Amino acid sequence: QGNGDFGENFIKDLFFGKIYCILNTMKTQITTALLLISNSAVFLLEGQVMKLKVLNPDNTGLTKEMIALREKRMKQIARPDTQIDMEVQEKTKICVDSALDVAVTSLELIEKAVQAEKDGYDVIGLYCSGDPAMDAIREAVSIPVIGAGQSSLQIAVGLGQRFSWITSADSDVGPDRTIRKSGIDYSRLASIRSVKVDIATAGSQDQEALLERIAECGRQCMKDGAHVLILGCLVFAGMGPEVSKRLGIPVVDPAYAIVSMAELLYSTGLTHSKRTWPSPGRQTRSWQGGEFFF
């Protein structure tokens, strides 16, 4: 009888002990979750939502739906407390594909960047891998200015020894300039290759076929010695993860690089150095040449 009581009590103690451990664990998990929710709520209530203004220098008939799609792609990897608003050129009608195009589009980009800072935006992102007018904009504003090209390069060299740049243009001159100007060791460039896509019609093309063309181009880059790829045109935005999956190497997506770098600088309270990009003296600057055809 005594042995039976001992066994019964032991089982009861073991059972209730397990229940207690489970409940205690659940209490800890719930408390942790509540703290996380509370911290997030405080963060939001304190007005710490990061506002990212993305300036798109290309305006060749982008509709509101097309702009919304680009914003949606960038929000896929953004924090919940990150606000992303894209703005396209209104006075400038151009598809940026050369140094001449960059010069033409720069004035309105600078104007919109200055206004974005006045409107309370925390970071400015340039939705073009050529980083048009980035130096001028950094002189004109104090908030961080993220170039799609520069941020992609900075990420790429941290992921592998050598990288390749995949462009949509026939010429490799633009990417070559961007890479040389970035400060990245040029010897780490394996190659610059082109998929040759018409930017104006890329959105209406068969996306699976385009993905495979990019992947095939990536395979050639790997033969060139690339360990990492950069999708060097924003027409490829959102395709990085799938291309990476098909090739088995890191693929940097410039659209995602803008968001990630913006959140990093904002959360750490960093911006570009005014010793490198000093604010220019105040004076009236104007150009009234109107349109020109080249």
- Uncertain regions spanning at least 5 consecutive residues: 31-45
Strand content: 5-15%
Structural class: alpha/beta
Spatial shape: globular
The whole-angstrom Rg is: 25 Å
Number of helices: 9
Query: Mean of the pLDDT scores?
Result: 85
- Helical content class: 40-55%
* Biggest beta sheet attributes: 4 strands, parallel
Terminal CA distance reads 105 Å
User: What is the total tally of β strands?
Assistant: 8
Strand order of the largest sheet: 2-1-3-4
Model description:
By secondary structure, this protein is an alpha/beta fold. The chain is 48% helix and 13% strand. The protein has helices at 2-45, 64-75, 99-118, 134-140, 148-156, 173-182, 207-223, 240-247, 254-268; strands at 50-56, 82-88, 123-126, 145-147, 163-167, 189-194, 228-231, 251-252. The strands form 2 sheets. Strands 2-1-3-4 form a 4-stranded parallel β-sheet, sandwiched between helices. A 4-stranded parallel β-sheet has the order 6-5-7-8. The chain is globular. It starts with a helix and ends in a 26-residue tail after the last helix.
